[in-house]
Structure formats: C-alpha cells, structure tokens
C-alpha cells in the first residue's frame, strides 16, 4: 500500500494511458461491426468471408501483431497507434460474430410485422432490428472490453506505456508488489468498463429489464 | 513488403533452422509448452464442463469465473507467478504452463457444458427410459453428441495458447517468442517478423487440423439428420 501511495502519480498516469489505449479499440470495434454484422446477416457469401476471416484474425498472436503492424501500415514500431489498430482488429474479430448472431436471432415474425405495418427497410433496421439485436451485442461488447483491457498490457513488452509496465518492471526487479498493483489495476479498470457498459445498456435499452419476464422452462 | 520478404528470406535461410536455437528446435519447444498447458487445462476443465452440462449445476459460477479469468492479464499473471514462486530460468516452465492453462480452461469448459446442454432433452430422457445408467448416459450419449462442441472449445483454446505461448520467452524460456524478444533490443526486424509469421502460421495450421478432426467427430446419425454443419 505504501508503494502505491509513494508512486501514485505513476500509477495514475499509466492507468490513464491504459484507458486511452483501450477506449478507442472498444468503441471502434462496435461501430465497425454493426454494418459488417448486418452485411454478414443478409448475404451468405459475406457471412462466410467475414466469419472465417475474423476467425483467422483472432488467430494472430498479439505480440507478433504489434510487431508486424508498423511494417504493414508504415508507423514507427513504438507508435501507440500500432496497439490501437491491433486491438481494434481483435475487437472486430470478436464483435462481427456477436453482431451477426444478434441480427440472426431477431424473430422473423416481428420483422415481417414491421414490414406489414409499413416500415421502410431503413426504418425497420433502425426501430426493429437494431434495438432487438442490442442486448446480445452488448454481451459481445463486454467480452471485447475485458479482453482489450487485458491485451493492452502486452504492449509493455514493446515499450508502449500502460499498466503492463508494472509487470515488466516488477519482473526485472523481482518486486511482487509492483506486479500485483498492475494486475489489480487492470482488473479494476476491466470491472469499471464493464459496469459502464452495463449502465449504458440500461440507459439505451430500458425495455430489456421491463420486458424480461422469461422464465427458465427446461 | 520489403520487410515481409526479408522475414521470409530469414525463415528460408537453412542456417537459421539448425541447432538448439534454430527454428526447428524453437518450433518444438513452442509446441511442447502449448501441449503441456492444453493437457493440464483439459484434464481440469473437461470433466468439470461435462458435469455442469449433465447436472445443470454450477453454471452461473462457471460463467462468472470464466469472465473474471478473461480480464486477468496473462503477462501480469506470468510475471507474478515467476516472482512469487521464486523459480529462476530453470523452473520457468511451471509459471508459463499455469498461465497458459488458465487461458485455455474457460473455452474448454464452455465448449463442454454448452455441448452437453445443447443436446435435445428427449434424447437424454429417451436413453434414461431405455435403462441407461447416469454414467452410461454421460459416456454413451452426451459425450459423443457433444464431441464436436467439446473439440470446438479445445480448438479455440489451442489457438489462444499457441498465440500466447510467445510470452514464455519473456521468462527466458525458448519457443518462437524468442525470435521476437531477441530481435527487439537490436532492432532486427527480419528476425522479429519471422518469429511473428512462424507463430501465426503454426497457429493456423494446427487450427486447420483440429477443424478437420472436429468435422469428423460429428456422429453419423447427427450428420444424416442435419447435414454437416460448418
């Protein structure tokens, strides 16, 4: 505890960096995956390409990806942008599947009734498909958030500052406290992000709790 | 492109393949670390997952624990265990195996219980009515029917383990991560990139093999009834 107090400024600045590196990939993966997921939901070929492509993307190991990216997109190797782009790719890889399955799960009857009462395809997407696909998408985004926050720390190996710095520095100095602070910090951030996502879900989708009267009937 | 070509040239150079620090040896170490962790994780998570699927008990705890484990940073756990266990480079295999097994357990567990839960209740009840004991239901009904899903879980665990086994090199162990971490301080991009390419190709190759195995595990009856699923 005393170590945390003594190094409070460093803890805060690394945590802040950690958050900054995580927020963009999480948001981007949602924004990019909704149209991609809709596309995969509508077109068989798009589905095959996108879902197997995202599977392969997820197979790329993170540390090597951080190293490959500068070569592919022409950034400097220590540029934090590499980490942001790499994590966005992982996020999209996870999220496209969630979004596709979320759209798949929308009841066809509901969709037909929306068309029957005169919704245009655009309106139907906005007021029927998207809201109904929202809850499973949120579940997917929570997974993306947790894995992103955990992966950011790997960037410490190539010198991109985050709470992961405490792992490498603590290891070199055989100093357990420092490593624990890094782990606890990462987990706390993950829980915080998760709580924010759940809260945002409740604000944006208030009907979920109001109508969720399903009972287990197995 | 230039870098990718130089990485390929690095991989194809026969001088980089031989000896205890060559690509061949590193590939073998990488597979060994991954296999150790996967065996450990399977031994623990598979029976547990089958039990949860069969009894329907402990599902919420399993999901919660898996979620919490996902938020745990692998690099943090690795360095923590290495320092806490006080093992030097010689004993570094222990923390690295534990970390990789922790990573592998949740997907294996999820594959197992989701596979069993996904079985039509009538099938299980039918077996029970025919006089199958609970043990027989698990081994002769649930396990064969859940096998593709179980292997699906093992597959995604394998993918993650092979990808993450690169960080074992951070503790001074071998494996393909060596090329990345050794190239980093001296800015040898060809070597780093070669390591990255090798890990990715290895992960995808093993994944392809497991996918073939997974498809072959769909029982003949299920295949006839539903057509082969992707």
Automatic annotation (TrEMBL), chain A:
The keyword Transport applies. The keyword Transmembrane applies. InterPro entries: ABC_transp_perm/SBD, MetI-like, MetI-like_sf. PROSITE patterns: ABC_TM1. It comes from the Bacteria. Pfam families: BPD_transp_1. GO terms for cellular component: plasma membrane. It is found in: Cell membrane; Membrane. Residues 15-200 form the ABC transmembrane type-1 domain. One of its GO terms (biological process) is glycine betaine transport. Belongs to the binding-protein-dependent transport system permease family. This is Osmoprotectant transport system permease protein. The lineage of its organism: Bacteria, Bacillati, Actinomycetota, Actinomycetes, Propionibacteriales.
From TrEMBL, chain B:
The keyword Ligase does not apply. The chain crosses the membrane at residues 30-52, 72-92, 98-116, 159-181, 193-213. It is a multi-pass membrane protein. GO terms for biological process: glycine betaine transport; transmembrane transport. Coiled coil: none annotated. It comes from the Bacteria. One of its GO terms (cellular component) is plasma membrane. Its main location: membrane. SUPFAM superfamilies: MetI-like. The keyword Transmembrane applies. Keywords: Membrane, Transmembrane, Transmembrane helix, Transport. It is found in: Cell membrane; Membrane. Residues 27-210 form the ABC transmembrane type-1 domain. InterPro entries: ABC_transp_perm/SBD, MetI-like, MetI-like_sf. Belongs to the binding-protein-dependent transport system permease family. PANTHER family: GLYCINE BETAINE/L-PROLINE TRANSPORT SYSTEM PERMEASE PROTEIN PROW, POSSIBLE OSMOPROTECTANT (GLYCINE BETAINE_CARNITINE_CHOLINE_L-PROLINE) TRANSPORT INTEGRAL MEMBRANE PROTEIN ABC TRANSPORTER PROZ. This is Osmoprotectant transport system permease protein. It comes from Raineyella antarctica. The lineage of its organism: Bacteria, Bacillati, Actinomycetota, Actinomycetes, Propionibacteriales.
